[in-house]
What does this fold into?
Amino acid sequence: MIIMNLHSCPLCGFSGEFIYQGLNDRLFDVPGRWNLRKCKGADCGVIWIDPLPDPDDLEKAYSNYYTHCDSESSKSGYWGYLYQWLLQGYLANRFGYDSEKTGGFQKWLSSLIRFHPGFREDLDFKVMYLSAPFRGRLLEVGCGSGNLMAFMRQKGWAVTGVDTDPVAVQKATSRGLPVLCGTLEDSHFSSNDMDAIVLCHVIEHVRNPAATILECYRILKPGGRMILATPNHESWGHSRYRESWRGLEPPRHLFVFNRTSLLRLLHQAGFSKIYLRSSIRGAGWMMIASRSIQNKGGYAMGCHEPFSVKLWARWLQLLEWAIVQFHPFKGEELLVIAEK
It folds into this structure.
């Protein structure tokens, strides 16, 4: 069932035009076809799905979603130990975590990671760009099964989560994580309560992104930070793969943002101290998935890729990094660090 057609932009009210029509679910094979419009407003430009799926039907699109996984793909054996050793050194050197437990050589060797922009983005994302001295209360909106929450709790944060997916929430609570089931707006957190709020690829899924960001602003303490990551439809990957671009993800991505539309929401919510850039994090994986969608009509989430494909993906990530040096908003993701 479809509940509404959205001919005008849900964010600014400006008219929109179809850019893609008849797209299917290329990741989990949810039945249906979806159209995407792009806002013509000069201070917006968001892409949205039209018609908007019914909430009850949309729940079916998440029945096999990756947020149900218990943990991230792990590295085992010697390579797993080396990765954890380097990660600890990098986070100690860059963000101050476990610094007293980390040796000088470990910090120095791990600092060399910064010379590979893709690896650097991956590891910065592990703590969502939050440094150890800033530690306090952290809320993750759309926490899934709680991978980030568990890691940040290990690093000394007092964590809380909220997610609309009951299966993901059950996974998280079974790990001893404090997670509420429902929307952020229905969770009724206190005002001026959180030191940090994280929305990691969440805002594109919510039906009213303006209300969600406004609620984040209310919940944050003065001086608190909201960290937000979301696909960037101005990216090089989108221009390369068009309707096959992984970041579109119909029907789960109700909105796909660019910098202009995202800034509009942030300013409307009251944020004035805003750091916004594009990021190449995940660009290689996005290219692998987009190429599969283009060539095969879909992509199997979590499938094993040959080393040659992974090498090709890392090369494209580095190529995107070079492009971003001249065109700063061509990265696959938009990253926001906004302070109240």
Summary: Residues 59 and 165 are 8 Å apart (CA to CA). The first strand starts at residue 2 and ends at 4. The radius of gyration is 20 Å.
